[in-house]
């Protein structure tokens, strides 16, 4: 983990103060250059800092919000807060200043419990007690606590059917499923709470969210991918050597970089399991290509995957974020296709031979690069637009691409999201998966380098297939569903908004019709039944012929 990573954008240089100044300059720069749109790097720095000033408090159910806020504001000004529901009411409170958190923790007490086996680990996850009046006052609370879960598909389909165009349906679906501002804050706060655990060993570490929690394509309820970043510590070793005496840290050498990562994750995993309140069901999955520890964070309801030494995944997260920010149709289409795939069982929450959301997102990006004119540029084009500060080589992989949105030319394709959705189904209904590989680096299909039903080149580790896990049956199912949806998309009956007066039951049309249970399996079953009926009739004809001959 203490290896040299040639990425200038993220590297701490010199002392912590210098590093902070450099980071602030990069942050300012990237906000300025991107016409008000923030780079993921700037967003992460801002949100991490907010999370450090925040606490998570389990409250009793009928809590009076005003009283609660007044009680907490004795420690300092509260900048933001929200309440949410997850098997009980929780509050996330962000103070204006860091000292307020210290003051609040100072005033909190260790609970008096009968068992003496409690682990006295003090964290920013607290519980509020009302010692005066019992905790179940029947007075209704003044504000509603928001659930942090996605609406059901039936709810969403009802909402979609009330819209007046497919484009409105696509926007509505994205709004219904996307992560809310609160949910994103909660994700950063959970990372920050876990950082406090890891900081016992590595005080200067950070834990950063990556993947769909931050790439702009996350759906409410998606997992929380995190990585333990120790490069800020190794960055301190990159000071220019000065003549004369110098002191160096003595460090322990691991057998290999992978073994070091496994050991660090194993030890921090143990710590999370035994000391971190709210973290349960930890599994170490250290022999995976990318070693990780998986656990549930109960107060937030997030399933967490903690990795270390995972800079390439962070780069692919940045790339997806950039594509999502370039054109609003990217996010709309990715959300719609992800939702379509989930409702038809193309993707699954259980690991297996299914297409993953990440693979599906890369497929959408590739499709958008193949439009005429293209809606988004290829990764090679983004690399060619990069400036010196964007240069990034990680473990020998070129991860360089431009970070300045304003420098990326777009080609004025005016297709609507609805048209693009139809074209997406057409495109993959007849894609030559047997021979060709999907490659967003080049933006054109490439000959498949290996035998695998579905080949999607990893954008940065180009020798890897992102969809290695997918079997032929799952790919066939995806193609059949694309064919079916492409066909449905051409049926004016299905695609025309249904007037509200047509019967009392709202009829599903447009996108809602595409999300209804597939007929692919149904057709197969009907065919089987028909074949069964034909063979029964043939059988009876043969029987009667036989009996005729015998007579
Ligand atoms: N990743 C990768 N190569 C893979 C799988 C994942 O680089 N073969 C990176 C991607 O940046 C991805 C992140 O790891 O976004 C997290 O992976 P995963 O949780 O599987 O995908 P998400 O994009 O987070 O989607 P989901 O909402 O399903 O969690
Ligand atoms: Mg994920």
Over all CA atoms, what is the radius of gyration? 27 Å
Strand order of the largest sheet: 5-2-4-3-6
Bound molecules: cytidine-5'-triphosphate, magnesium ion
Catalogue the unreliable spans: 1-29, 136-140, 522-551
Distance between the termini: 89 Å
Task: Characterize the main sheet.
Answer: 5 strands, mixed
For the secondary structure, the number of strands is 15
Mean pLDDT level:
86
**Fraction of residues in helices?**
40-55%
Per DSSP, what share of the residues sits in E-state strands of 2 or more residues? 5-15%
Q: How many helical elements? A: 18
Structural class: alpha+beta
Apparent shape = globular
Q: What attributes does this structure have?
A:
551 residues; alpha+beta; 5-stranded mixed sheet; 18 helices; globular; disordered N terminus; binds magnesium ion
Describe the structure.
The protein has about 550 residues and is α+β, with helices and mostly antiparallel strands. It is built from 18 helices and 15 strands. The protein has helices spanning about 15-35, 40-50, 65-70, 100-105, 155-160, 165-175, 180-200, 230-235, 255-275, 310-325, 330-345, 355-370, 380-385, 415-430, 470-490, 490-495, 510-515, 520-550; strands at about 5, 55-60, 80-85, 90-95, 125, 145, 205-210, 225-230, 280-285, 290-295, 300-310, 390-395, 395-400, 435, 445. The strands form four sheets. It has a five-stranded mixed sheet with strand order 5-2-4-3-6. It has a five-stranded mixed sheet with strand order 7-8-11-10-9, with helices on both faces. A three-stranded antiparallel sheet has the order 1-12-13, with no helix packed on it. A hairpin with a 6-residue loop joins strand 9 and strand 10. Helix 5 packs antiparallel against helix 6 and helix 6 (about 165-175) packs across helix 11 (about 330-345). It is globular. The relative contact order is 0.10. The model is unreliable at about 1-30, about 135-140 and about 520-550 (pLDDT under 50). Magnesium ion binds next to loops.
